[in-house]
Every structure is written in C-alpha cells, then in structure tokens.
Amino acid sequence: RRVLFRSKPPMVGLKEAYKSYWLKAFCWRGRSTRAEFWWPTLVNLIILTLLGTALTLTQLVLVLDLYYLFLIIILFPTFSIIARRSHDIGIKAYFSLFCIAFALIRYAPVILRIGISNFSGLLLVGLGLVVRICYITIGLLPSQNFPNKYGDPR
Question: Rounded to whole angstroms, how far apart are CA atoms 112 and 110?
Fold first, then answer.
C-alpha cells in the first residue's frame, strides 16, 4: 500500500491574511488556518490600541465614535473567521454564535451608552473574559491535517 503525503503549503502572510479576512467577511463555510486567524486579530488589536490611546490622549467624542465604529465594522468578519477556524479544528461553528451573543450582551450597554449597576458590570466583564479565553483557545488549537466535513486542509 502506498501512502502519499501532501506537502504543507507556505504559511499565509499578514497582507494575504488580512485581505482574506475582509473578502470572506460573510463566508461562514470552509476552513481558516491559525495564521489566517491570528494576523487579522493582531492588526485589529493594533488599530484598537491606537484608537484607545488617541482617545485617552485627546478625550474627543469623535475618537470614541471611531473606536466603536471600528468595533462594529469588524464584527461580522471576526465572527466568520471564528466559524471557519472552528471548522478547521473540526468543531461546529456554533461557537461563533456564542461569541456573537456574548459580544452583543457585553458591548451593548457601552455602545448604547446605558448606565449599568456594579454587579451587572462585573458580570459583563466576566462574560467578556470567558469569550476571550474561548477565542484564544480556538486560535491556538492545531488544524486537522486531513479532510473533514468542512473541506480539505489548507
């Protein structure tokens, strides 16, 4: 019996991964590698950090609005990459629905500028922590190196 081994394709670079992130913003099918997952995460984190720093230094409402606008704009591409990354490790994309629900619960009071109690605020921070831990876990788990029901490995 003859066993054929596929050579691994070269790792996706930052530019290609971020372009794919936006082009596949509403693509919930298929698979994404760890590089396709982490490069956009890094770029978005840098942009949010710069906007947060600008907000801290200037205290301008415009910068705050830009910060929230960017969060809203990256919402669907981020959830779709979570779905494709989930597929790559062999699990259903229901986790992305979990992330959507908790992100909306977590950020709705802030975006809508609704006052919340200390307990509710603590609960929202806890939910945000759970989502972040799951997000990091999805990103760190290795890809399945064989075809699964979501497609061939990349």
Answer: 6
For residue 42, the surrounding DSSP H or E stretch is: helix 34-58
The amino acid sitting at 76 is F
Find the distance separating the first CA and the last CA of the chain, reported in whole Å.
25
Contact 87, 151 (CB under 8 A): yes
Structure tokens at 128: 């945000």
SS3 content of the chain, % helix, strand, coil (to 5): 65, 0, 30
Q: Count other C-beta atoms under 10 Å from residue 96's C-beta.
A: 21
Question: What is the chain's Cα-based Rg?
Answer: 18
- Averages of pLDDT over runs of 10 residues in the chain (154 residues) are 56 92 92 93 94 88 88 90 91 78 69 64 75 85 87 82
Determine the Cα–Cα distance for residues 15 and 24; give it in Å rounded to an integer: 14
